[in-house]
Structure formats: structure tokens, C-alpha cells
Known about the structure:
Its cofactor is FAD. With about 600 residues, this protein is α/β, with parallel strands linked by helices.
Amino acid sequence: MASVSALLNQLFLFFLLWLHTLSSSSQAVHHQYSSEFRYPFIKKASSFSPGGHGDSAYDYIIVGGGTAGCPLAATLSQKFNVLLLERGGMPFGNANVSLLKNFHITLADTSSTSASQYFISTDGVLNSRARVLGGGTCINAGFYTRASTRFINKVGWDSELVNKSYPWIEKQIVYRPKVAPWQAVVRDSLLGVGVAPFNGFTYDHIYGTKFGGTIFDRFGRRHTAAELLAPADPQKLTVLVHATVQKVLFDTSGKRPKAAGVLFKDENGNQHQAFLSSSLKSEVILSCGAIGTPQMLLLSGVGPKAELEEMKISSVLDNKFVGQGMADNPMNAVFVPSKKPVKQSLIQTVGITKMGVYIEASSGFGESDDSIECHHGIISAEIGQLSTIPPEQRTPEAIQAYIRRKKDIPHEAFRGGFILEKIAHPISTGQLKLISTNAEDNPSVTFNYFNHPHDLQSCVDGIRMVIKMVQSEHFTNFTQFDKQTTDKILNMSASANVNLIPKHANDTKSLEQFCKDTVLTIWHYHGGCHVGKVVDREHKVLGAHRLRIVDGSVFDESPGTNPQATIMMMGRYMGLKILRDRLGKAAGV
């Protein structure tokens, strides 16, 4: 009897494993179909009809269904008719978006239909911007951590409302991670070099070492800002995907230009106009992100008049600050090889130091078959290994030849992980300018990494700390490599050629040169529409009526170690605040 019972238990376990495997393999199909029932208000742009809610106009038109735009739309729809326009497609059913193991594949996809739109800043650093419903939450490393109390006070937000808005996000799409071995070693080595105390698992931004939240669940499935649309009122919200807004439409008959609606193009290339209601409190809200929002203002005729005229764009509102003050947090990565296979992990551990740098880590992505064979985009051997050759000579044939050679490299060469060092508050800034009037093209973006000596010194201090971590017994015991010299540690990263910046012979002798030559992005760029210069404290565009901005372009620093938590919260927060300001107690929030 006992043997029969054991056999049944074993069969049941096999059945559960089979169900999990089936669930994982069919997950994309499941999401694709279930999303049609859960989000009936999401439609293709070509289905647009102006009177979708029985009216000829909307109370709010939100441009950009990303990290802030989705929670903002869901919140406003509780009381008002909302149109949300997203230039990308659906995240549901896209395995490259949904699965942690495919994180790097999305960034490697440079096709026109990718969820990630590839661009290179004028600094020569490879970068990406989201092009999908859910925005950056669909292509990032998933780490979730709140901003500091100092940041919340600095931007002038109501802390009580902030503390109601964060949990609204967290209850829906945030998880406590199962800590990977690599991340535990990073924790131990951080504590060993003095980044203390250990604060355990917390969303809070406090000095020391901690584990943070993640938008990946225990099965490695990503949950994005698009899922924050679920609480929306389906009778009051319309979401259009593949709706590329060309410009904001203005009524210029008064003393100040007044936003009247938007012009957008659907997936078939046909143009449509959507209009606001006649209420003075109705608004077009730009949530296109730190690249897309200043670009959209410029395309709409809001920006430096001379630049607009140069592009043959009629000036609606002259503002010299649009596109100025663009900043990106420089990141430098140190590769740590391992003699044994390393489990894949994205950011789980973070060291919040008192010297202006954050330390994070990832592991295991280099040694997968997909990783060895594909072009990684941001950590790009396919482009980077040719960085000593002028860009015009980096032919497709040369790149393909490298890819073929790469497949012959033993998998063991790719084992290990990265320790990432990010400058917390860069002083160096740049600018964004149009190079085309096509809304689908990338603008020209300059970040001027390390232009300010303080940023460079912070990087040097951070790299010194990373070297100590790699040389610690925590890492030597884990990787089974003997303690290595500083030159050898840095040479493995310097020789990877991760950007298009020309290399120098003394990369491993000078930490300053190493920082400059191996600089990367961690996609935390911000600015271009600063408070007091482009928008007021309520994020309303200065000099215009019925136009507001809700995204990271209004920030002069990136919130927390990783900004997605605060930008999602910002969408919820601003939605609640708009409802309160417009309806008072009747808002019921």
C-alpha cells in the first residue's frame, strides 16, 4: 500500500511539473488571449472613432502608455473619459518582454517592431528607449525600490499621498525575489568593504546594503505597468496601441496657446485627430519619457524658436529650455569570471553608499546559448569589438563574421557576472535636438558623460570599491578563481569594448581613463523639461493652457537607485492629485 501511495505522490509531482512546463511554454499565448478579456479597452489605432464614449471629445488625452502613463490613465478613468495613445504594441504574448531569461534578447532586437528602440547618443554610448505598452517596465532589469525621503521633499510632493500611491503599485505587480547565489555574494562583499548596515529586504532608500523588490514573479515572469490598467473603468478608458502621435494640436486664437488635441498615425499609416472637450480643465498630458516628451514638444512647436524654424516647424511657444539639461547616470561594469556555471539573475542587491555611487549586479546571461549567439545591443560585442575601426567601416559583413567566430568560443569563457557601478547624482548634462520631423525617428541626444570632474571622481571611487569586492574572499571562494590583480580585473572589462568610444592603451592603469572609455548607460536618463523652466510645480507647461507633463523629463535627478517605482507612483500620484484638484471631496480619493 505504501509503495502505491509513493507512486501516486510521484505521479502527482510529475503532473505538477508538467503543468508548470506547459504553463511556461504556453504563457505567451495565454497572456495574448486573456488580455483581450482583462483589457477590453485596448485596441489597435486603426479602430479609432472620435465619438468612442458617446461624446465628440475626451477629458484627458495621454500621450505615451508607459511607466507613468498607464497608472495615470487608470486613475483618471475613475471619473473622466480618457484616451491613452501608445506608439508601440502590446507586451502580452511577447516572450522577449515577459520572461526574465530573455531580458537581453529584447535589447538585442533592433528591428522596427521591437519593444526596445535602439539609439546611440552623440557621446558614442549604446542606448535603448521603450516602444511598447508598459514602457520601460517591459525592457528593464525589474528592480523595484522607492525614492529617498529627501527626493520626495525636494520635488514638493504630498508625502501622505505618495505613501498611498506606492502601495497601489506594489500590491499589483511587485514581488519579493528569491535571492540568487550571485546576489548573496554581492551582499556579503558589499558589507565586507563597509557598505553597511545590512537592511534586509526593503523598498526604502536607506544607506547600506539591501535586497529590493522586483516586477518578476517566482516563475521569472515580468509584470509591467500595462497591468496597472486593470483597475480602470472600461467604460471611460480607450487605449490605442500602434498610435504614433505626430504632434499636439493648439488653439492659438487667445493670448496663450491652448492644447486642443493631438494628431496621430495608426499602424496602417493613416492619420487621425483626437480632441479635448471644451472644459478649461481638460488636458493633453505628455508621458512619453525623457526622450519622447521633449521631442514631442519640439515637434509640436514648443521650444527654441530658432531651432524650430531651422526644422521648418511653426513656433507655437518659444522656450529655450526645452531639451536642455538632459542627464544620464553613467554606469561602468566590471566582469567577474567564474569557473562554475552561474545562475541567471538581474538586480536584487544594491549598495547605497555615502560617496555618491550605487553598486548593483547581474549574472549568468553571458553563458546561455542565446546570449553567446546574439547581438546584445547595450553590452555589444558585435558592435563594440569593432570599436577601433571607424564607424563607416563597421560593415554588416564584419559584424556577421564576428558572430560566427563568437559561436566557436567555449561557453566557459562567458561564465560569470557583472558588478555595476552607477553615479547617483551626475552634475554633467547635455541636450536633445531634433534631426528629423518624423516622430518615429530618434532625436539627437547628448549626455556629456563625465564632463564634470566630480562625476569622474565618483566613478573612480566606485571602481576602487568594486575592485575590492572582486578581490574579496567572498568572490574568490564563489568563482573558484584566485585573487586577481587590478589590471587583470579591469582588462577583462576594458577589452570587451562595450561602446563606440575609442580606447586608450592605459585603460587599466588610469581609473579615470577606464571610467571614460568603458562608460555605459543603465537607462536612467532624465531631464529636458525641468520644473521652473518648462513646467511649473504642478507639471503644467509654462506659457500654455491645458498641457501637462507626467514623466521623468521633469526631474533633475533620477529618483532612488532605480527610478521605475517612483515613475509608476508618479502616474498614480498625479492622477489622484488631478482628481482632487478638479473635484475636491467628490473625487473620493
